[in-house]
Amino acid sequence: MAVVSSEATAVATESDIVTVRRLVREASAKLGFSLVDQTKVVTAASELARNTLIHGKGGEMELITLNGPRVGLRLKFHDHGPGIRDIQLALRDGFTTGSGLGLGLGGAKRLVNEFEINSQPGEGTTVTVTRWK
Amino acid sequence: MATTTVNQNASLASIIERRRESILAEWLREMSGATRRSDLMKESELQGQCGQFLDLLARASGTGTNVQAAAYEPLREMLLDISRVRVQKGFTPRETAMFVFSIKRPLFTAIREAHGKDPVAMAEQMWSTTELLDSLGLYTTEAYLKSREEVIRRQQEDMLELSTPVVKLWEGILALPLIGTLDSARTQVVMESLLEAIVQTNSRVAIIDITGVPTVDTVVAQHLLKTVTAARLMGADCIISGVRPQIAQTIVHLGINLLDVTTKATLSDAFGLAMHRSGFSFIRSDKKEKRDN
Questions:
Q1: pTM, rounded to two decimals
Q2: Are A90 and A81 in contact (CB under 8 A)?
Q3: In CATH, what number does A3-132 get?
Q4: Domain residue extents for chain A
Q5: Is the Cβ pair A40, B246 closer than 8 Å?
Q6: Each residue's pLDDT tens digit, B198-227
Q7: In 3-state terms, what secondary structure has residue A69?
Q8: Of A1, A24, A2, nearest to A11 (Cα)?
Q9: What ipTM is given for this predicted complex?
Q10: Of the four listed, A7, B17, B117, B206, which is most buried by Cβ atoms within 10 Å?
Q11: Which of B188, B215, B244, B249 to mutate to test the interface with A (most CBs of A within 10 A)?
């Protein structure tokens, strides 16, 4: 799998979420994603960036452009927050520890092709999602 | 070590005092070369600033070279003021910082002349003076950036107000065209202005148009639902319009339930529905014969 480019950006404030959306929109447009696919991956990035900010107390996003046998966009959200104790529960629709709708994590999973989550309580969380063209 | 620093700076103060006029004149000449902006600032104003700077520097430098110390407070305040004014007047950061840096040559000339026969003392004092002026220059740049950020923040707040107009489309029908990002702060403003307008215009239907909102994620959806609920509590029905195909698909995947809310693809559809609900109907006057339904 050929990685064409990879860049990291901080997710530390509300306005960084706007930056994340813009970066993901630009990258997916450059890869030739359809408008629907662009919107899907941007929305997923918005959800995950907000999780990184609110639940992970800030972190970063790595944006990886893949151009191997398949063209795609991979986003890696990483934080050093309190971590997730029960991932299955966190993925369930309607479950939230904050004040949101509880649809962000599960919704993001449905908006992408590949979804991977690694989390240890006390050590932070890494969510990696991939959307193929 | 500490005592020598104080001694050196005591002499910096005395050098400035003794040669105040010649340093001032040379400094002004120095600035007139590269960074003087006579289009933005009067000569007399600059002269006043330079004189004040020299006096404050002479007074503060007697206590040491730490610019964060209390003795430098008046000097820091003055630089903060200068930076703020220069941001407003349109100076570049370079031109602002050069106010401090351009004093180096005249001041160093004065130091050289004062220490004529003692190169070691001269070198030491030049070094400590350079350090001091560099810190002050950096402080000026920082202050400049801070003032800039203030300007940006103020503009953002202004935009927040401007970007949420509630317009009356018809008797009892309001429209709220949303454009851009819907964060918590903006949603609060949107909700308030919509609810106020509902009361003022005695409206029964409010159309929230999201054509200009590029991304509808769970937080935006939650904000929209809260606004709709609040409007309903006040007796007004909400219609959400401008749901584009890609947004509709995304909302489905996210699992957001908008079934309780009336949604339309375009603002004109929503307006037609609102008119119908309010009991109005359209008649095309010039082609009456073709109107059959």
A1: 0.65
A2: no
A3: 3.30.565.10
A4: 3-132
A5: yes
A6: 999 999 999 999 998 888 989 889 888 989
A7: coil
A8: A24
A9: 0.84
A10: B206
A11: B215
